[in-house]
């Protein structure tokens, strides 16, 4: 069976705002198959002007709060970049990339389905580090 990668329809460059970017990142996250015990918040970090594009940086911070531990021992962040090309028409959709805090690998939502295991691995590694200290 072929794996269907869930993605959303991204806004065009001319309709993009920082708020729209954050809303669309939340819409993308809602397509991810993660257990309901995971909670996250997203935030806009910065705007970056480059020679050939404008980049908008966001972060989604994930954790699993519990009744005993409402503030999780460790969290996992996913960093998003929304790119608006200076060479493409403003009717073209924005480009979106994301990476995990522990990785340099940059992923595109339309090419790679997000996996909950990635968040678990980050948090398990952080807790293992904390326990060693």
TrEMBL record:
Taxonomic superkingdom: Eukaryota
Molecular function GO terms recorded: protein kinase A regulatory subunit binding
InterPro entries: AKAP, AKAP_28
GO CC terms of this entry: cAMP-dependent protein kinase complex
Pfam family, one: AKAP28
Matches recorded under PANTHER family: A-KINASE ANCHOR PROTEIN 14
Name of this chain's protein: AKA14 protein
Recorded name of the encoding gene: Akap14
């Amino acid at each position: 069976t072929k794996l269907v990668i869930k993605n959303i329809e991204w806004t065009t460059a001319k309709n993009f705002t920082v708020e729209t970017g954050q809303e669309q990142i939340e819409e993308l996250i809602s397509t991810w198959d993660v257990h309901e015990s995971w909670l996250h918040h997203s935030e806009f970090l910065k705007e970056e002007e480059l020679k050939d594009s404008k980049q908008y940086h966001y972060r989604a911070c994930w954790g699993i709060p519990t009744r005993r531990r409402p503030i999780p021992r460790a969290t996992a962040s996913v960093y998003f970049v929304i790119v608006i090309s200076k060479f493409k028409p403003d009717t073209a959709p924005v480009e979106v990339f994301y990476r995990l805090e522990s990785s340099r690998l940059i992923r595109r939502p339309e090419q790679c389905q997000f996996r909950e295991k990635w968040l678990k691995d980050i948090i398990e590694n952080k807790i293992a580090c904390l326990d060693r200290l």
